[in-house]
Amino acid sequence: MKRIHIKHSILPAIAILLCSCSDSWLKPEPLSFYTPENSYVDAAGFYSALTTCERNMMDEFFWEASPQLTEMILSDICVEGTTDKAGPQMDIDNTLLPDLDLNNNERTKTGWYWNEGYKGVKYANVVIARIDNATFASEAERNAVLGVAYFQKAYRYFKLTHQYGDVPYLDWEINEPKYDFYTYDRWSILEKLVPELEFAWQWVPETVDRGRTSKAACGVLLMKVCMAVGKFDRAIEVGKEITARYPLMTERFTPNRTKPRTNLMHDLHSVEAKLDMGNTEGLMYLVSYPGIDGSTRIQLMRNCVPFWSSGNMRTPDGQPGTSISPDPSETDPEMDLNKSYGRGIARARNTNYFQYDIWRPDKEANDLRGVYNRDSWRAVSDLRYNNPALKSSGNEWYGKNIIIPASMSVEDTIRCWFQWPHYKTFVPDPLQSQWMGGETPWYVYRSAEVWLMLAECYYWKDQPQQAAEALNTVRRRAGAEPLTASDITIGEILDERARELYYEENRHIELVRISYTFARTGKACEVFGGRVYRLDNFSGPGGTGSNVKQEGFNFWYDWVVAKNNFYNKGVKHRWAEYKISVHHVLWPVPASAINTNMKGVINQNIGYPGAENNLPALIVPTEGTVLGPN
């Protein structure tokens, strides 16, 4: 039918042209007038470029095998759980190398951050370079556009400088192929971002459409960068302003409040909460609206829920125990495991640290976010055998709670048997037969994180009482017991971030940021007996393929190995052993980026092949530009 339609619609048009008395039709006409020169002429044109930046932010958290999982897996809270194949990021010594495919669903997404980071920088730099070639209604309008561009550039560079350390610095539009990039010192990059984010904090509007860059978002990123360079007093000033304007949600406020087995945490992290314009806690969102064409599925349940539908999940008498489709006559909605919990495959398998250790019976027994609240958390043992064949055969196990099979292999135990924060992962997926996580807005920043950042600032300033008070603001809302000044350690702060910010924070980045701060300040780390770190051996002693597993080089390695019960513990299955090394604190720069940069030098990080060719990193000037006219 399509071929017939083309024949009857195009041939008459060609005939008309051939019979025309004029040859004007031969003159070429542009198919589109959408070019930089005639698009970036006003605020609307610039916002089209910035919308691309904001849209690309979504891909970090959405889709199957989202890049955010890599941030979680290379940390203390999760490991890769897809144990049915070779290749995923388990044996990090062998799967995180510069010349491998570093942007692959079945391996790692470290390369995604490099590629997409520089794409975001590129789009933002178009606006920065052309801002004074356009016409604006007012100075405020111009500065708001420029402020959003500064935010988008800083958003990428904050990630890049904590994932890769020293990196190439781009601050102007590039209009032709360029093969002479050089690596710049991360500290000077971060220092350069501070005044630009101060500008954004001043000029970006407070009230914007959901999904756009807001003043509060600029403030949060300004805090993060200030903390990274040691400007803790300024971070505290900004944090106090944000928390004063945007209080935590402390009362139930969505239709969930009428549903059984829900609480305030279900409200806060529901689709409805992120659509609610009265939600004062959300500071910046990614937008994907249920039922709207073009919206994106988050697939959070597929990524983070155990593989309960595995064929190895058998009853004690050896029968297949679970099914994605329940018995048609079943009236108990919880027997529909697919729609109650989502059809998971455990790309992120929670560690004991996250699912047990941070939930203490004397302090978090009543914490709505924690494992003691069985409305908020679920374990596979909370689910019930629902295979219709069990019901039709009259099997005694139908409807009873699942028991771990005695014969389950190590790899199946890793993938199929753990508990997870159901209140955070559940996203209805009604248009799909298998519920993996549907369309929803998602928090980029919340004021709860601002309180936790304030607590950390006070920690670095040796003000434990103020740190405890900031942490207790978040803990009080959750129902946890208050902390005292004597409780405050960097470990306590990281524990609280894990409790509150699962799948929101870039966990690896936050651990690296703290690691750099310990190394730069020389502050004794109390959780490791007063250990002191240094910048000059941050990634270890170096050497290609060294894979050093010795304590004392950086906080990230010491913390991850201490808290993650998989890495370097001899945990193995038929495909891999979970291993990690000191230099993995920073990720390998993709070899393709280095090899195609034929007229310059992009440094490789210490511990990876190619680092022997490094040159001293350049310093970003405090005035003027690196690539621009100044």
What does this structure look like?
It is a single chain. By secondary structure, the protein is mainly alpha-helical. The chain folds into two domains: 329 residues, Serine Threonine Protein Phosphatase 5, Tetratricopeptide repeat (Alpha Horseshoe), CATH 1.25.40; 153 residues, no CATH class. It is 40% helix and 4% strand. The protein contains 24 helices and eight strands. The strands form four sheets. A two-stranded antiparallel ribbon has the order 1-5. Helix 8 runs antiparallel to helix 9, helix 9 runs antiparallel to helix 10 and helix 19 runs antiparallel to helix 20. The longest helix is centred in the N-terminal third of the chain and has 25 residues. It is globular. The protein starts with a helix and ends in a 35-residue tail after the last helix. The N terminus is likely disordered.
Topology:
Layout: H1 2-18, H2 36-39, H3 43-58, H4 67-73, E1 78-80, H5 92-95, H6 110-130, H7 139-163, E2 167-168, E3 183-184, H8 186-203, H9 215-228, H10 232-245, H11 264-268, H12 271-275, E4 282-286, H13 300-304, H14 337-341, E5 348-350, H15 352-357, E6 377-379, H16 388-392, H17 410-416, E7 419-421, H18 422-425, E8 442-446, H19 447-460, H20 464-478, H21 490-500, H22 507-521, H23 555-563, H24 591-595
Antiparallel strand pairs: 1-5, 2-3, 4-8, 6-7
Helix pairs in contact: 3-6, 3-7, 6-7, 7-8, 7-9, 8-9, 9-10, 10-19, 19-20, 19-21
